[in-house]
């Protein structure tokens, strides 16, 4: 199913040049199945199995291949009288969930939380204003510290039509304007 959706998205983009409509269809499907989300929500991942157990705030981006797991079936191997356990997932306002992250059942993320790519979030960070990353995810720094650290290399592709000429623009940046690890 996921491969089919990705294929449809690619074809849609080829035809229209815009994947915004595809994303809106996905958000509508999420909401029709009981998922709650605020304004300005960018949903690049698959719809969770139990969308009615997920609540997402305003100005949230969830990157591709992220899993919002609202259940765990592993208990079936421990207790023959049980098949699953469930937990709601709540994501506050102004959050970013990096690509290929996993959010486990029962997790709540407060406002202004950034989850690094590939993280496994096993517990809640209700206070927000933090960057969390790793497996299991832990606090790396505050969002203010992160913003200060990244400021020298940040660009705004929404200014001066840069998004349309992104390849040319990025290729022209001096080396000190690119991330180095």
Short description:
24% of the residues lie in helices and 22% in strands. The chain is an alpha/beta fold. A hairpin with a 2-residue loop joins strand 14 and strand 15.
Task: Give a quick set of tags describing it.
181 residues, alpha/beta, UDP N-Acetylglucosamine Acyltransferase, domain 1, six-stranded mixed beta sheet, four-stranded parallel beta sheet, 15 strands, 24% helix
Task: Please explain how this structure is put together.
With 181 residues, the protein is α/β, with parallel strands linked by helices. It has a domain at 33-152: Hexapeptide repeat proteins (UDP N-Acetylglucosamine Acyltransferase, domain 1), CATH 2.160.10.10. It is built from four helices and 15 strands. The protein has helices at residues 2-16, 20-32, 143-150, 166-172, and strands at residues 36-37, 42-43, 54-56, 61-62, 67-68, 71-72, 85-86, 89-91, 96-97, 102-103, 108-109, 114-115, 120-121, 130-134, 137-142. The chain has a six-stranded mixed sheet. Strands 1-3-8-11 form a four-stranded parallel sheet, covered by helices on one side. A three-stranded parallel sheet has the order 5-10-13, with no helix packed on it. The longest helix is centred in the first third of the chain and has 15 residues, at 2-16. The protein starts with a helix and ends in a 9-residue tail after the last helix. The relative contact order is 0.09.
